[in-house]
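Student:
Attend to each token:
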Amino acid sequence: MMAPMTPQLRQLQTLLRFWTVLFGLGAFLFFITPLRVIASLNYSTQYLHFLRPLDETSISFWLPLAVSLMCVLTLLCYLAAKHIEQAAAWVVPILLSKAVSSLTFFFFYIRQNFAAPFFWGALCDGVIFLVTFYFFRRAFDGQTRKTEVDQE
């Protein structure tokens, strides 16, 4: 019989289900409307003058990699939520992906003359990393403490 799920694990599971939908939708939107995604991000330059637009035609080479990564992240989130007790095996690659993408987006934000899509990419993926890391740590620290208390 399985032990009851801690509230922290349940919260992580809910977050991972949300990311599953978000990443799946992101993959779909990136695939069917890549230029519209860039145009939408570039729109912010009208109001945030520290940002610059990015040439919309420069993304098609990397689009297959972005879509495939979003599909892999969708699957990892689905598997982690489905098998929440073993979520570490799937959450760690998600965290690695979001840490690397955040830093890479930030690097290109600086290198590409403060282009808006890189700013928003760094911000979004950075927030996803921090929120996921926070709930991941809470879930597994809480589970460890509960197990230690139960053993005493």
In short: The chain has a mean pLDDT of 90. Helices lie at 7-32, 34-43, 63-82, 88-111, 116-151. The radius of gyration is 18 Å. The chain has five helices and no strands.
